[in-house]
DsrE family protein (Streptomyces katrae), 108 residues
Amino acid sequence: MAEYLLVESQGSYAGPGAEAFLGDAVRLARAGHGVAVLLIENGVTEGLAAAGPAVGRVLAAGGEVWADAFSLDQRALSAQRLAPGVRAVEMDEVAERLLRPGVRGVWH
């Protein structure tokens, strides 16, 4: 199976695209693919505990959900506000995952 790193930069406040993109992550994970979703820029708002259920569905399907620590800091959001299972990460970890052979990166 393939491994994916899906990058969500917009968030649901920008329209339905983020929820649809996270739905793609759920389908890939359910199909047995390795999936990590990186929430970056305004997309980090999707990882907050008060956000909608889309991130929870990714986690329940077996995917990982990461929130970019720099983006959180730039928006004065604490990592403690993230939903259970969402992990703040630095770019070195993201780069390591993306540079693994066979990982497919998709940006939204």
About this structure: The chain has a mean pLDDT of 93. The CA atoms of residues 3 and 102 lie 7 Å apart.
